[in-house]
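Here is one chain, start to finish.
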Amino acid sequence: MSPGGREVTITIDGREVPAVEGEMLHDAARKGDVEIPYFCYEPKLGDPVGACRMCLVEIEGIPKLQTSCSTPVREGMVVHTRTEQVKEAQNSVVEFLLVNHPLDCPVCDKGGECPLQDISYGWGPGKSRVIDEKRHFEKPIELSPLVAIDRERCILCYRCVRFSQEVSEDAQLQLLDRGDRTYVGTFDDRPYVAPFHGNITDICPVGALTNYTYRFRARPWDIEHAGSVCTICPSQCNVSFTVRDEKVKRVISRDNHEVDDGWLCDRGRYGFEMFDAPERITGPRLKGGAEAGWEQAVEAVAEGLRGAGGKVAAIAGDASNEEGFLLQRLLRDALGSGDLDSRPSRGPKAEVLRRLAEPSVSAKVRDIDEADAILVLGTDPLHSSPILDLRVRKAIRRNGAKLVVATERPTALDGGAEAIARYAPGQAAHFVSELASAIGGAENVATPVAGTLRDAEKVVVIWGERVAREEGSAEVLLDVAKATDMAGTDGAGLLEIPDTTNARGLREAGCLPDAGPGLAETAAGRSTEEIRQALIDGEVTHLVLFGADPLRDFPDTPAWEEALTACDFLVSFSMHENATTAKADVVLPLETHAEKDGTVTHPDGRLQRVRPSASRPGFVQSNIVVLAELAKALGLDTGIDSQPTAFAALTDAVSFYNGIEEADVGGRGIRWQDREGSTSDRTGSEGSGPEGSTASERPGPIETSDGDAADTERDAPISMVQPDQTPRGVASADSPSVTPDLPGDDSLLLGTYRDLWAGPITELNPPLKFLTPHQRLEISPQDAQRLDLKNGEAVRVSQNGSAVTAAVLIKERVSPGTAFMAEGVAGANANALLNGGPVKVQIEKLSETRA
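Its structure:
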């Protein structure tokens, strides 16, 4: 990223080139259409290191050649990139690199898309004077179960090591030995297993690092690249699918600084093999597993829903904006029911959602980079939105942002926090209320967390959707926004991390019980938990599930088991077979994000285009067309027969999408808040809110007509809201952390979280299966001593007749009196223990033998 200095003019090869004072010469040359070769330089990795010496240039007034990647420009600088001295230096560097580089281009997976090949032809000497035998190493070496390293190909550009040290900050990759014996490896040859380590294969400029999932599968001349968006998690990273024979063979990053900085998590990178998993549903099925044609299946669904008499509900999960829009039209207009939701559990009312969506208090992903202070509230981005974890680390490392963390459970970001607050499960609303009061209160009542936020000019709050499950908590988030003057500060705001991929898009498309498209007011229906109870009580008899699996992903599994059993007619749109589809009367297949055509909405409000890249297997059809045909079979002609017509209908129905064309979305997406002409007719305010507008010009409200990191400790102040006590919100700045009164029985207050690797995406992908987690009961050392438990011991965790088996994991940073388990773990799902909120669980030791 270029510094914000004054504009200067430099001369490169006799041409005047505009530049910004302080930016690196290489960046200025590239903007001036001057190509300078390089290997080690990568702006995404931070400050340049000038290690490869390939980008040497001649600068008048400096006697020696300089590396353009690490030389800042200044006014009047005169640069030469094609002199004999420069050519000789570049030839020498290439010749030196090729002394021991193997000539295995015909079999190297990088062949045909290799920078070393291109630079050797363009800037190399064209011949070699070395006749000695090259060095040889074992090939390949398993750097991790997913990545192989061919050490003899490595040119020691340091890119992969710098990623590990400076971006993901896992510090697993090292440069070992010295001199000509230096090589890339891990301490004690341990496997390099980390959530982001697949990125090193993208940034490697040679074929030293390759993915086992792509190794020897295709060549550059028989593949196609298709840009799209990953919809596996709320990060919605921009990706490029490598497609051969209409099948996805690889997923690589597609740089979009506004969204992902060009990085991918390993789940999004390696999760594509689930597209062809044996469990994939490739055609419509009727009760009992009987295959059916599409006409027969649509008619069966229509006939079943006609008999509902309005007692029908729908829940949307993994769906695009267009699919969500059609689903709500199907339910409201064709079936006359308002019982529709897109949230796994309860959430705030539409009125509060409208206020939270106001542009004046909404943050963009890019705002994290320039924030003075960042509050991570009620979520661990590493598990819920992994790329935001990297973004926060970048803001701390590069711009000195101050991080404060307030969560129930320890997070991967705790190690870099200025202050940490812990509150008990179920106490988020009280904590946030106390925090807002402390920020706006007198100086002498400031806490470490509140004091950091109060002293900062630009505050970004990254908050988890489950915070809003508690009554009143979403409203008090707005009090924090007011206390930190987010509405009056450009670059400050709230940024939600939802539980599902396209949660914001589905809400804005109308998949809410009390809001239609554009969050417009509508007749109130039932929410997800109310739908569940209504099914049990017989008040709702028919249910449509679109990309939702309540038995795996929703709280209170026993209640959902009862509800689905009581359901008279169940329709399940699903990508893969699961326990929910086994109960369905009709099962219809879903497209993957590599086959789908539509749009999704990033949590910061950016509309992005999901494009079809691979062929659909079997008899899978466009879900937009299927929903439109189903609506027509129920007597509702939507006028939609394709993605373009569905998008047009969506933008017409959502007030703040009005006027957005597909070309506006393009390959980078568009935030309606940033558009020229976002006037009061859409936003209810005078301001246009384009990028760069002043705080007073920012758009107003939407109109209402509508793995854990290592358990490292830091000397960060910690304040806590303890269980079984009156919630304390935030402690005084100079008071010690509160020590709770330990319960007298064997019960603990259970909190749950989403593990990055828990769920079918890991289980259905052979390369990722080794990461499938086993259930663990995280408890504090005090509780472990009180309950006589040791690490690894097997225990039964029970509540209200439900029980889950887990292995004990003692963690220093877990608050006494609380315990944590992961949701979605196969065979031991913590959702089975929940029944409406935080619960007390009983712990029973199963064996003295360690699990």
